[in-house]
Amino acid sequence: MNPTTGPSPLLIACALGIEHLALRTGDRRGAGGPVTVLRTGMGPRAAERSVARVLADPALGSAAVLATGFCAGLAPGMHPGDLVVAEETRDPRSTLSCVGTDRLVKELVRAAPGRTVHTGPLTGSDHVVRGPERADLLATGAIAVDMESAATLLSAVRAGERPVAAVRVVVDAPEHELVRIGTVRGGISAFRVLRSVLPAFFEWHRSLLLPRR
Questions:
Q1: pLDDT for 12-65, tens place per residue?
Q2: Helices in the chain by DSSP H: which ranges?
Q3: Tens of pLDDT, residues 90-131
Q4: 14-48: buried (b, 16+ CB within 10 Å) or exposed (e) per residue?
Q5: CB atoms < 10 A from the CB of 3, how many?
Q6: At the N or C end, where does the chain have fewer CB atoms within 10 A?
Q7: For residue 26, what pLDDT is reported?
Q8: Alpha-carbon distance 62 to 109, whole Å?
Q9: How far apart are CA 200 and CA 203, in angstroms?
Q10: Is 168 helix (H, G, I), strand (E, B) or coil?
Q11: Tens of pLDDT along 128-184?
Q12: Which of 192, 77, 66 is CA-nearest to residue 134?
């Protein structure tokens, strides 16, 4: 924290209107500094452009950035409503390590009791992944895939050195694909989980502001 500028800000980025709604209507108490929730639009290009534009504002120049929203789980046994904490994000241009993943896992378990939290690489795609392509991505070591997280974090670190992380809620999985019966139920479950975990994001951000020992 810079005493001349006040508490460090937090930028939470998502792609879809339904994700933005979940984050806007979640519990906003307990933030460690100013919080901006950004709807980037769908896809890596939209995410990259939106994040770069927002971080060009001097008020957000030092912001920590957390990418969130829904994702597709790749590993057997994943279910809608499970949480994914990225240890790193991957796309053809970069592999970026995430910061404070242990703290995020701890806080997510507290914020969403009973939900399974998975950790591992989160890979990026420029399209919705279905069927056999899941197995191909799983073979690379990734545990989940989405279209915006890798681009969001890449854009963030290009704009300046800062802590970055990605947390996603599984909305479909190998045994629960979006095209199957139960999609609506799975989507409602994922929405409720995303809405409930804002306090975990705030605690992660707060932990970044503490002096290191």
A1: 999 999 999 999 988 888 787 899 999 999 999 999 999 999 999 999 989 999
A2: 17-24, 44-55, 101-111, 132-138, 149-158, 183-196, 198-209
A3: 999 999 999 999 999 999 999 999 999 999 999 999 888 877
A4: bbbeebbebbeebeeeebbbebbbbbbeebbebbb
A5: 6
A6: C
A7: 84
A8: 28
A9: 5
A10: strand
A11: 887 778 888 989 999 999 999 999 999 999 999 999 999 999 998 766 555 443 444
A12: 77
Nearest to 107 by CA among 4, 201, 209, 9: 201
- For 115, phi then psi, to 5°, come to -90, 140
Tokens of 107: 């806080």
For residue 13 the two structure tokens come to 């980025």
Tokens of 207: 């932990």
In the structure encoding, which two tokens stand for residue 183, read together?
Answer: 């999609």
Other Cβ atoms within 10 Å of 77 Cβ, number? 11
Six token digits for residue 171: 């909305």
Residue at 70: amino acid letter = F
2 vs 18: CA distance, rounded Å = 34
Mark out the alpha helices in 79-148 (DSSP H runs). Answer: 101-111, 132-138
pTM higher than the cut 0.85:
yes
Strand partners, 118: 84
